[in-house]
Amino acid sequence: MADKYKQWSVQRLKCELAQRGAACGGRKINLIERLESYDRNKNFREDPIIIPEPLDVFWPITGFQQLRPEHRKSMPQLTYHQIEQYFLYRMAEDKQMTSDLKALEKGKDLLNGERIFACSMSSDDAHIYLSGIVGAAMKQKLSYNFKIGIDKRTGDPLNSHCECPAGKGPHGTCKHVAAVFLMVESFVEKGNLAVRKGCTDNMQSFHVPKKIYDGKPLAADRIPWKRKHTDEMLEDPRKDKYMKFSSGYSSYIYNCMVNFCSQSSTNISLRYLTPSTSLQVASRDHDYLQQPITEHLVDKAVAVSPKDAKDIEKSTRMQAKSKTWFDERKWRITASRFGDIVKMTCRRDTRKLCSSIYQPKSIITYPIIHGRQHESRAISMFEELTHFKVKKCGLFVSVKYPFLGATPDGLVENDAIVEVKCPYGGRDVDIKPGKKFPFLVESNGKITLKSSHKYYDQIQGQLYISGRKLCYFIVYTFCDILILKLEYDEEYCLLSLLPKLEIFYKKHFRPYVASCL
Questions:
Q1: Could you tell me if 151 and 73 lie in one domain?
Q2: Same domain for 84 and 151?
Q3: Considering the entire predicted model, what is its pTM?
Q4: Is residue 129 part of a domain?
Q5: Which ranges carry the SWIM-type domain (predicted)?
Q6: pLDDT per residue as tens digits for the range 319-335
């Protein structure tokens, strides 16, 4: 090898040393000795150890599709509580507590500011993977790529990574990752896909005016002004002799106008100078009817045929993920409120009760989140223990009492339903009657459901409306599970439950809904 280097020129020797990262200065003999030393010592250097990046988890490279509304059906239920726990404790593999809740607040601002530029989805048997781009908060032209992994069955966040300094994987908890998690939560719960649309995603709008006026005519004294009204501003400039019209003259002009428009099927500008008639006022004008017009409209809106009832059940099997499910429930009393109505006393504020049924508030508490999160696990354990297959179902509507609806947690074969309860207070204890499980009672040495509890009214209502005879009532905790078989009580339903619900609907709920029209 030494003879080989002696035959090389000085320039070639220097190039070889430069490639090896060595010094290139000195005489030719020094260059040759330096190369010989490198050759002698090359076997003493071990192969370099490649330290994997923290992001060295499995991330698919291909198979991604742009996130679209139809992907909502395949997404698991992801709640704010799960996201909060991930940012607080890092619920995935490392179990490190970071308490990084400020990122969630900043993530909300990014989401509201439409800074999620792109989001794509891929999935396998156990995971959902999301990838895309989120814009920086303070710089318009800066953006970061993100990667997120979610458990396909439970919806728990598993891994996350972002290119920003605070979002390094495999469990990054930066504000950009938080914005994506919050977007997915809103997408799963409400169907809102808050990904910024590109300029080519919308129809061209060169000819569309900036704002279209769609307001209704108002009287001059009701027009909103920035300045405060004074008597001088509202003073009528007409002379006295022109102001002294008979009280019915305006009504006469209005009736002539309405009759002309209805007979000739033409519009005249004078019609738009009068405010629209209130539906409630029109209803009071026809007080000779047996039933107010507004209440008649409510009855007509909830009425269904047997075919309609089947179609509603099929179209609402996604339950809370379906807009139709919310629309069909709005004017109906659902089984979860049967107990509140049956046990209502004369001291109960019926208007507040009707308001909570007609316009339920979206309340997120730990017991509610706990129940939603573990309902699927309870059903899976029920299937393993009983070897039954639980099928999803939608909103059942009674044909005879169309103002009543029920959504069981599942169906078993052709004659049974499933109802799951996951009590938050007793999540870590064995199931037995007592303070943690007030809806249970021990009778003849066996645990059963209290007939005086509102869960009993809920289940009996579900059985009647769905037309089934048996309910598997499942109580699930982290260390125990209880499965009760409850049969349909026909006498109680027909003679007690349904009459009370019908009276409440006709006397309180229907008038309340009619007053909101």
A1: yes
A2: yes
A3: 0.56
A4: yes
A5: 146-185
A6: 877 888 888 898 899 99
